[in-house]
Amino acid sequence: MAAGAKIWLEAARPKTLPAAVIPVLVGTAFAHAAGAASYGKAAICLGFSLLVQIGTNFANDYFDFVQGADTAERVGPRRAVAAGLVAPRTMLVATIVVLAAAFAVGLLLVVEGGWMLLPIGVVSIVCAIAYTGGPYPLGYNGLGDVFVFVFFGLVAVGATFYVQAHTVTLSVLAAAAAVGLLAANILVANNYRDVETDAKAGKRTLVVRFGRRFALWQYGLSALVALLCAPALMLAGWRWPVLLPLVLAPWGVRLTHRLGSSCDPREQIAVLADTAKFLAAFGVLLSAGVVWGAR
Beta-strand (E) ranges in 25-107? Predict the structure, then answer.
């Protein structure tokens, strides 16, 4: 792979992409269980979700550098602009191109799912920029977790199901909330690691505002509530295979303990990566359980 391609692949932050893939997988699993699956429509949803995620990452790379959050003191994976690998203007142009592509793909979803999806798609793209850019950056004012929960949980799972089944059910929304909580945990792990440098840069994440103890409780409770989605689905009438995600409970406990006990930046980076893997494993097991355990 050419050096330039490697830089852009790194800037896309592939370890965060489960947050884009898993919601589509889960939404499509519910559509399959409802006898409404359309894998062509699912592919369009996946393309939109990936482009929004990558566009968000590019925008974050650019705006964090411009606003002084990415400095030499920061630990964690290198950022392309801060490391001098990509010029700020080039990253801004790349952000615009990727999000424009997301808009184009989103128009296909509007054709398939109706005009009500247009404002949802537009707001998703605007928030991808507003996460770290604009006059009131969400990530700098403690709203990043809400953004991830809503758009990579409720919206992504719900819209994927809606495009295929033309309705939304309480079971889908429960699963969407679970996915959103675990996607937000990726952000919690990232902000937990960066709390000192974020505070210096004026980035008032929830960890900066309320401390690491709060973040640890948020992380652990989010994992717990997400796992409780499985028995909730069974109580709603789904068969026992929907309980498959519960096998991840010991891993969730270990991840929470690792996050709270490590002061080593390398270990904290590993926890971040494993949090994304936890989301991926949860999504795969939940999807398998939904398909297998359909009523």
Answer: none
